Amino acid sequence: MGLPVYRIELKDSAMKKLESNIWSDSFVSGTMSMDGRRTPIRIRYRGGHTREYPKKSYEIRTAKATYHFNAEHDDPSLMRNALSFHYFNVLGVPSPSTKHCVLYMNGKKEGVYLRIEAVKSAFFRKRGLHARSIIYAVNDNADFAMPEKNAKSSRLLSGYAFIKGGETDRNRLSDFIRSINRKKGTDLSDYLRQRLDIDNYLRWLCGAVLTGNYDGFLQNYTIFEYGKRNKYGMIPWDYEGTWGRNCYGKAVNSDLVRIKGYNVLTGKVLAYKANRQKYKRILERALESTFTVSRLMPVVRKMHSAIAQDIYDDPKYKWDVGIFDTEPDVIREYIEDRRRDIKNEMEQL
Predict the structure, then answer these.
(1) What is the pTM of this model?
(2) Enclosing H/E stretch for 147
(3) CA-CA to 343 of 20 to 30 Å: which in 35, 79, 131, 257?
């Protein structure tokens, strides 16, 4: 049995508007059908450099939900985002749901896509969480660092896009970044406990480190503020460059990402022994149970088997299908090597 099939229909005028500027974030209207059910939609291109690819990614909005249909063009497995979000959920970090599918555009087959749940208000309602603000980290200025003395003050939030939240929420994030950079000692430790969900943060850090997302510390995450707790939490986003390959699909060493991560906030959190010990326990439990070949490879093989035939029939799949066939082995080898890396680096904590 093949993957679910989504069929998008756009009028000629809408298609021309969409194609006239691939960098535009404007939506056009159309319809989407799946299992005979036809739904009005708004659709636009999404992504950065990937907009120039022949197989483009889309953001699609219905009356009830928003989804990202990712082409995963640079990932020969088309599984890395899905596997990463699956693993973060195992770790207890709220993460987007995913579903592989086949997409048609005006009757033309576009190939296999990964439908990803958007991290917006509905995402939190579905999980019984209330998010006061939702902020995407969109470029490498989202490192929680203070701007250099001569830099414009706008640099402080230049790495973030507010999906939900107003000026008060922007000011709260600015104050948070300034505070973690200026406070020290017990003042900083107390402040972090008050304003950051440290357990969530350390689990998120564990997931980013184990999956090997080099880009996941300075961008490609979502930060949100719990409505009643007034604490920030983290959610992963864009984990295509993981499990032994970078974001362009190039094979990389398993030790590319260090055990302590890279951004300023991580350094502040891990400056305290109690947090380092907690992080170490999270990593140790992961190595004992969840981040193992026996636990993860059945998930990989099931996912790989489910999409294989549609990958072979994908007119825009850019890799040799022989590479796709060996991707489970690449991921298995990465898991084995990454386990060794982490065990060797444990002394740093």
Answers:
(1) 0.95
(2) none
(3) 79
d(CA 300, CA 293): 10
SS3 at position 25? coil
161's tokens: 């896009």
Q: For residue 272, give the amino acid letter.
A: Y
Q: Is the pLDDT of residue 154 over 80?
A: no
How far apart CA 145 and CA 101 sit, in angstroms, is: 39
Beta carbons of 225 and 169 less than 8 angstroms apart: yes
Written as six digits, the tokens of 16 are 């021309």
Residues 6+ apart with CB under 8 A from 77: 243, 304, 324, 327, 328, 330, 331
Nearest residue to 325 (alpha-carbon basis) of 78, 132, 27, 125: 78
Q: What is the pLDDT of residue 222?
A: 96
Amino acid occupying residue 154:
S
Q: 18: burial class by Cβ within 10 Å (0-12, 13-18, 19+)?
A: buried
Q: How many CA atoms lie within 13 A of 40 on its CB side?
A: 3
CA nearest to 78, candidates 175, 3, 132 = 3
Both structure tokens of 108 = 């033309």
pLDDT tens string 56-104? 999 999 998 999 999 999 999 999 999 999 999 999 999 999 999 999 9
pLDDT for res 150? 55
Q: What is the DSSP letter of 127?
A: T
For residues 63 and 40, is the Cβ–Cβ distance under 8 A?
Answer: yes
Alpha carbon 308 to its chain's center: 23
Q: Average pLDDT for residues 224-240, to the nearest whole number?
A: 94
Cα gap 268→128, rounded to integer Å: 29
34 has a pLDDT exceeding 80: yes
DSSP 92-105: T-----EEEEEEEE
